[in-house]
Amino acid sequence: MKIESGQLKADRVLQNGPVITLDARSTIADAVAIIDGWLVAVGSSNDVSSLIGSETAVTDLRGRSVIPVLIDKHTHQVMAGLDTAAAGVKANVAACT
After folding, report:
1. Please, what's the b/e burial string for 32-48 (b: 16 or more CB within 10 A of its CB; e: otherwise)?
2. Predicted local distance difference test score (pLDDT) of residue 82
3. Are 34 and 12 within 8 A, CB to CB?
4. Rounded distance between C-alpha atoms, residue 49 and residue 39, angstroms
């Protein structure tokens, strides 16, 4: 987190591409500002521009999309891996006790 001239400045800004928010209104923004790993602003490039400081890393997305990362901490990767042609087996892992 940086402060310049009494104003908070972002560590990183991503702009000029669709930012998929997955909010209730299916909003598509075109910029996002990040401070200390937290999203602090999502909106238009104009909305976020006031958070750009001399040390802010600015990424021009050039039309590429930003999407939320969905992490499923409850996965069955071994079972999925065994159920592939490349593994050469078809196993009912749940039955193997």
Report:
1. bbbbeeeeebbbebeeb
2. 63
3. yes
4. 14
Backbone angles phi, psi at 86, to 5 degrees: -65, -30
Whole-angstrom Cα distance, residue 81 to residue 95? 16
What distance in Å separates the CA atoms of residue 35 and residue 38, rounded to the nearest whole number? 5
pTM recorded for the entire structure:
0.70
pLDDT tens per residue across span 10-38: 999 999 999 999 889 989 999 999 999 99
CB 16 within 8 A of CB 61: yes
Expressed in angstroms, the distance from the first to the final Cα of the chain is: 52
User: What's the DSSP call for residue 94?
Assistant: G
